[in-house]
Fold this sequence. Notes:
Elements: E1 11-12, E2 18-19, H1 25-39, H2 46-57, H3 78-95, E3 99-104, E4 107-112, H4 115-122, H5 126-142, H6 145-167
Antiparallel strand pairs: 1-2, 3-4
Helix pairs in contact: 1-3, 1-4, 1-5, 2-3, 2-5, 2-6
Amino acid sequence: MSPPGERRPPYLVPGGRTVTPLNSPLEVGVRALVLLAESHPRPLDLAQLVALDYLVLHSGEFDGPHSLHPDLPARAGELGRKRELLEQGLLVLIRAGLADIVSGEGGLMYAATETGPTFVEVLEAPYVTSLRERAEWALHHYGSPAHARSVTNQIINRASSGSASERAGHG
């Protein structure tokens, strides 16, 4: 076990690739499962999951509970990578039988299977409890597809205006 504050080493996975546990498909998949379990049986599309995952991690930016992850200057850049990581994490969930792809009005959506919420219920880590609280808050305030688009636009606009003010020396 690494001492607190020490960066954990990457892990070797099949195919010779290395991954770190932070923002790995498994971690992002667990966050997606928490969101899907909280919205169960209602499915969510990928755009909603991207926005809601950001909200869960950075809820303090949106007058919600204290953010789980630190407010780093480049956090808005997470959106670009988050979609790909979520797709990989959702595949992990589907293979494990915890989530499914369903057809919805707007196309393909994702939903927790009947075992998904049960799996989340047995996770006892304090981080998962915090995730669940924030997922419930995010879904209550921003769960519709329109709200997801609005949140994504807010994040992009903040990144654009923040970058401009930083370049001007006001950041």
